[in-house]
């Protein structure tokens, strides 16, 4: 399926390029008058590149200015023109029905959904079976990747599953075009321009042809969705054909992911996380984002949920994380978890990578069940919670609707002050208690 989809997009892209080349030839192709004697050496073309209008005035204006920047940055005239000539406004980015939430720019789904809902797709039977099959089908490739980069195969295959369902959904947008649309849309202009310059470097280095540059809606490319700048920093040619082909070569794409994780501090054989059980009366205020030594956690009353002893292969420090509060599964998180977050800076994403990788390797978790009777807060309820905590002097930080570590810390401090289990898990039940206290405070100050 993926191959067919890709080929179809190539045909479309190639047809567009042919039309484009024809258009350029027409616009700039004045026939030279016949001259006697030796043919004159044509002067190198200079000055602004003339583009046919994209049909969007703002896009044309942006392109004229950015094109100059790209030339000034030293990119080859032909490359700049090939990247920017075919751009056109996309409904997704610049259409009248543009919705920030639809593009994901302000999508806080990873925060608003209860973690057990978020995990449904990454932990689905079909995803886990596919990942396990990939591991079994290519043991030689994964052996070589582990040896070359020191990154465990489960982590690599889990990210491949998370990013594109193992190459099934690589995206068939034109990478230059989505980045140009992002630049014109305006909120991420400098990022988009930086990525476009990186694309020009990729083309200049000869790793891909112009029509190979397919991407998802935000410009991430290939099997494991590399942004162009990430590609420049980390992409690998693992099949040895001289090209770093993250679009079509599984070996190159997976090696690129391994190289990226390795550069983010991933350590071979160390756990990303270990599920734990806590003794009665355990102080969940210790789930405060601070890393402590394993010995400290053992002394405080944590044991591995699967029994036995902590087997960390040299990972000495961990933080305690309660993805669904004190009633749900509890994890000690290690350095490798942070390496996963370099791919996507959300705890839920890194957790899904770790859990699904383990499951693909044959060990499904968590052992404890999710507290589905609790109702996590919506984004607007989180804002209410943050404002109420701030009003009571518990510093929840910016009122942004994102229950980050600061919000959890403030809620924990509130819970502690009331003698409650201080797990910082923002549920409707917790919000009700905080609001009760706020109104009590208001009542006391007005009486
Ligand atoms: Ca290659």
Outline of this structure?
With 447 residues, this protein is mainly alpha-helical. It has helices at 2-28, 57-72, 77-84, 91-94, 100-103, 109-112, 115-118, 125-137, 139-149, 153-164, 175-185, 189-204, 228-234, 250-263, 294-300, 335-341, 347-360, 379-391, 405-417, 428-446; strands at 173-174, 214-215, 273-278, 292-293, 302-304, 317-321, 330-333.
Polypeptide structure, described:
This protein has 447 residues and is mainly α. The chain has a domain at 379-439: Orthogonal Bundle (Muramoyl-pentapeptide Carboxypeptidase, domain 1). It is 50% helix and 5% strand. The chain has 20 helices and seven strands. It has helices spanning 2-28, 57-72, 77-84, 91-94, 100-103, 109-112, 115-118, 125-137, 139-149, 153-164, 175-185, 189-204, 228-234, 250-263, 294-300, 335-341, 347-360, 379-391, 405-417, 428-446, and strands at residues 173-174, 214-215, 273-278, 292-293, 302-304, 317-321, 330-333. A five-stranded antiparallel sheet has the order 4-6-7-3-5. A two-stranded antiparallel ribbon has the order 1-2. Helix 8 (125-137) packs across helix 17 (347-360), helix 16 crosses helix 17 (347-360) and helix 18 (379-391) runs parallel beside helix 20. The chain is globular. The protein starts with a helix and ends with a helix. The relative contact order is 0.10. The structure holds calcium ion. Calcium ion is lined by residues 237, 239, 241, 243, 245, 249, 252.
